[in-house]
């Protein structure tokens, strides 16, 4: 899900990013990355190879980062520029990373500024390959990528599947989208806590209950809050499954997404994963009722007459049903969107459904609730604690909720 609000926020703000750009037409996407990261509060040093400068100019990066773009290993800044860059970086990302760069990085070459910076840094490194599919699948390229991953511990993000450069058709090799590169960088910048390696299950979005083959009953949920919870869990190192009702949002990066329509389908999908999950987050706006007898054919006005009654039957409660099989020590987080008696209603849900935390908000408040990018929530816990958070982006709200959910997980045996 693209970071919708680009204001300084975790995990990017105050961090130093070296953004390497190598030769390839996808280099244009890295200008967007440099711009977004700067707006998210990072200090970005763009480093362009000479091949990159055939496609994009240093000036473009300077305009969006407000800092000089770097191109020369032997600059007037002194021969140790690469050492300074490498030492000060919190993360080094190369996007796009072409085949020649991968070969040089894998063999430890030091013949340009980005390769020398890689040798000088001990920060995490994220590589985003981009090239023609035939080149990408070549054993030489695959061997280089394996080496970068397995031996050097670099994170390789992408490539994606989709249209390649003009005339090259569709295939594997496309640079991932700017927001996905930003997420991969965000993950590298996020310290590993108790969530690292744990299984996380998130429900999100609305459900749709059929009236007939063309009509349904739904609700106004966009899925944003649940998608943000899934994305932040991935950034923190979780293995995340998102069970989502119909939503227009892109799949969160790195997350397994199971798309469903109805409450019953959501329960079936969630049940498959619930007993293995270390944290279960129920952010979906599940329909409490469904039409008891949806019509197999389109309901015709002439046949239905001036009034149309719909008899509804209760849906299962996905949270309650799936928590029956929960793992010992797991943490369950519920959401409560209310219009009246917000805290009292949220508290009832906390005890009745067996949640450890409930994130409550008021649907009538401006900037909170469905369809907006922000939220103002109160977090209630099973011990009676209450915390009011300020108006925050949904991504920041998710970070705050995860701070509290993560601290409730017991440290894994054998780990700090
Ligand atoms: N929930 C669920 N399955 C349902 C209904 C709710 O999993 N059929 C979960 C939601 O994902 C949320 C919590 O339960 O985490 C509270 O949802 P909400 O719709 O606010 O509560 P309801 O129990 O449906 O109560 P009401 O609609 O009467 O307020």
Distance between the termini: 32 Å
Number of strands: 21
Q: What is Rg?
A: 24 Å
Name of the top-level CATH class of the largest domain: Alpha Beta
Structural class: alpha/beta
Number of helices: 14
Low-confidence stretches: none
Major sheet: arrangement of strands: 12-11-8-13-16-17-19-20
How many domains? The number is: 2
Looking at CATH, which topology of the largest domain would you report? Rossmann fold
In the CATH hierarchy, what is the architecture of the largest domain at level 2?
Answer: 3-Layer(aba) Sandwich
Tell me what the structure shows.
This protein has 416 residues and is an alpha/beta fold. The protein folds into two domains: 16-189, 3-Layer(aba) Sandwich (Rossmann fold), CATH 3.40.50; 199-296 and 309-407, Rossmann fold (3-Layer(aba) Sandwich). The chain has 14 helices and 21 strands. The longest helix is centred in the last third of the chain and has 15 residues, at 394-408. The radius of gyration is 24 Å and the shape is globular. The model has no long low-confidence stretch (mean pLDDT 94). Bound molecules: cytidine-5'-triphosphate. Cytidine-5'-triphosphate (CTP) is lined by residues 203, 263, 282, 284, 286, 288, 315, 317-319, 334-337, 349, 353.
């Amino acid at each position: 899900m693209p970071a919708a609000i680009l204001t300084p926020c975790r995990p990017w703000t105050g961090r130093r990013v070296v953004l390497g750009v190598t030769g390839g037409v996808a280099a244009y996407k890295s200008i967007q990355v440099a711009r977004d990261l700067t707006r998210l509060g990072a200090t970005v040093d763009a480093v362009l190879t000479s091949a990159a400068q055939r496609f994009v100019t240093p000036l473009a990066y300077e305009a969006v980062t407000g800092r000089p773009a770097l191109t020369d290993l032997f600059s007037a800044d002194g021969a140790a520029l690469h050492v300074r860059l490498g030492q000060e970086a919190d993360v080094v990302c190369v996007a796009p990373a072409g085949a020649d760069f991968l070969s040089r990085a894998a063999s430890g070459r030091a013949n340009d500024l980005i390769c020398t910076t890689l040798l000088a840094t001990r920060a995490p490194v994220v590589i985003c390959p981009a090239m023609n599919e035939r080149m990408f699948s070549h054993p030489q390229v695959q061997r280089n990528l394996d080496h970068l991953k397995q031996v050097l511990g670099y994170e390789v993000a992408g490539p994606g599947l989709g249209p390649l450069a003009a005339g090259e058709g569709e295939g594997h090799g496309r640079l991932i989208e700017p927001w996905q590169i930003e997420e991969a960088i965000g993950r590298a910048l996020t310290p590993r806590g108790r969530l690292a390696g744990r299984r996380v299950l998130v429900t999100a979005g609305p459900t749709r209950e059929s009236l007939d083959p063309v009509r349904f009953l739904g609700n106004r949920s966009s899925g944003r809050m649940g998608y943000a919870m899934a994305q932040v869990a991935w950034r923190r190192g979780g293995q995340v499954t998102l069970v989502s009702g119909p939503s227009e949002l892109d799949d969160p990066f790195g997350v397994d997404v199971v798309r469903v329509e109805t409450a019953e389908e959501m329960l079936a999908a969630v049940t498959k994963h619930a007993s293995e999950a270390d944290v279960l987050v129920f952010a979906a706006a599940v329909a409490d009722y469904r039409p008891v007898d949806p019509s197999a054919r389109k309901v015709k006005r002439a046949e239905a007459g001036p009034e149309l009654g719909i008899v509804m039957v209760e849906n299962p409660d996905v949270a309650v049903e799936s928590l029956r099989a929960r793992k010992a020590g797991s943490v369950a987080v519920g959401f409560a969107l209310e219009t009246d008696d917000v805290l009292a209603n949220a508290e009832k849900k906390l005890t009745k459904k067996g949640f450890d935390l409930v994130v409550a908000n008021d649907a009538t408040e401006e900037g909170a609730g469905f369809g907006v990018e922000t939220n103002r929530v109160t977090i209630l816990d099973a011990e009676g604690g209450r915390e009011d958070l300020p108006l925050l982006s949904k991504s920041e709200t998710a970070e705050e909720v995860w701070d509290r959910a993560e601290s409730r997980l017991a440290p894994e045996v054998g780990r700090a």
